[in-house]
Amino acid sequence: MISLTQKYELLTKLPLLQGLSGKELAHIESVIGMEVNEVPAMRKPLIHQNDPCTHLIFLTTGKLLRQYESDDGLFTTKTVIQAPSLLEPHNLYGLDCRFRCSYTPLQEVSFITVRKRDVMQHLMKTDIFRINYFNLLSAIIHKKDTMLQPRRNNTVSQKIVHFLQRQFADCDGQAEIAIKMTDLADYIGETRLNTSRALNQLEDANIIELKRSLIVIPDIKKIL
User: pTM of whole model > 0.90?
Assistant: First the structure.
């Protein structure tokens, strides 16, 4: 159980809450609670893809495995999220309020969850939180818009890199995607042979590592 002082120190470091005064944090904490909940490491997801997104969730300590399965079931991705972080804040509102990924604790983690109603009734009334939230949403939209812009990919390697960029635009560190060679070739509109050659070239350049039906990207920054 953390002390009140430790709790305020933790809150000041969380995304969206940075910049709030001690008085504002104390008021929010007294109204909403902002309780820190601890969860042990698990083998199964704590949050499943397509679960309703009804809370603003702060990951305050620990690491989560983030997994995504494509709608057609032809590939899955895995990345690791480290605290402090937010879990899909852009999906709290909109036409389809569901988590796009599954999240599994890799170690003991802790969360602070805030109901959507409390976000609207309390957090959004604070100027700094509102500005932070809008800036965050704008950054997410900008990244997604950039990935959707048409590109002249003259080589097969460029097509593969662009495909990977679209999957990991908001990620850091290491990532991996489980996909069959034939499916990747179909996605980028190339032959299996050309796709295989391009993947080997990317591996020779130390951009990716190839395993059976698995592409590992040691450092996302190399493709972004």
Answer: yes
- Residue 223: pLDDT band (50, 70, 90) is confident
Domain count, the chain: 2
Q: Which region, left, alpha or beta, applies to residue 133 given φ > 0 means left and ψ of -120 to 50 means alpha?
A: alpha
Q: Which two tokens stand for residue 75?
A: 């590939």
Three-class DSSP labels, 114-150: EEHHHHHHCHHHCHHHHHHHHHHHHHHHHHHHHHHCC
Domain CATH code at residue 74? 2.60.120.10
Q: What are phi and psi of 81, to 5 degrees?
A: -110, 130
Q: How far apart, in Å, do the first and last CA atoms of the chain sit?
A: 40
Q: Does 119 share its domain with 73?
A: yes
Please give the structure tokens belonging to residue 71: 């709608």
How far apart are the C-alpha atoms of 70 and 100, rounded to whole Å? 10
| CB within 8 Å of 53: residues ≥ 6 apart | 88, 91, 92, 97, 98, 99
Q: Which of 89, 118, 144 is the last residue of a domain?
A: 144
| 136-177 pLDDT, tens digit each | 999 999 988 888 888 887 899 999 999 999 999 888 889 999
Where residue 204 sits, what CATH number does that domain have? 1.10.10.10
DSSP-assigned states of every residue in 178-192: EE-HHHHHHHHT--H
Chain-centroid distance of CA 148 in Å reads 18
